[in-house]
Every structure is written in C-alpha cells, then in structure tokens.
Write a structure and sequence with these properties.
Elements lengths: L7 E7 L11 E3 L3 H15 L2 E6 L2 E6 L1
Parallel strand pairs: 1-2
Antiparallel strand pairs: 1-4, 3-4
Length: about 60
C-alpha cells in the first residue's frame, strides 16, 4: 500500500532570498525569465502545479 501526501509545498522558486524560508527546497534565480523557466520545469518534474505568490516568488504544490 502506497501513501502519498496531498496539499504539500514541493518547492519554492524565488529571486528574493530575504523573504523565503521553511522546509521545502528553495531555488534561487537571478531574473524573471529564469524564475518562470525554473518554475515550469520543476512543475513537470515534480508533477505539481506552479503558483505565483508575487512577481519574485513562485511555489510548486501538490493538490
């Protein structure tokens, strides 16, 4: 029997190192283009959904 967590933050992608923290992996990026590219790549790899928190931070979540 397999157990899968639901409603979980899988990753945080940000340009702003001062405002993020916590238990999920945090990916630091340099600009908005890299933020979008990294977010959508991780979305596919982690089988999650990308959500924009603000113009400098996105999260990948599993619903």
């Amino acid at each position: 029997m397999s157990t899968m967590l639901k409603k979980q933050i899988l990753a945080v992608i940000t340009q702003d190192t001062e405002t993020v923290g916590g238990g999920a992996p945090i990916f630091m990026v340099g600009d908005a283009e890299e933020l979008e590219r990294t977010s959508f790549l991780l979305e596919r790899i982690l089988d999650g959904m990308a959500h924009q928190i603000n113009s400098r931070t996105m999260v990948i979540v599993r619903h």
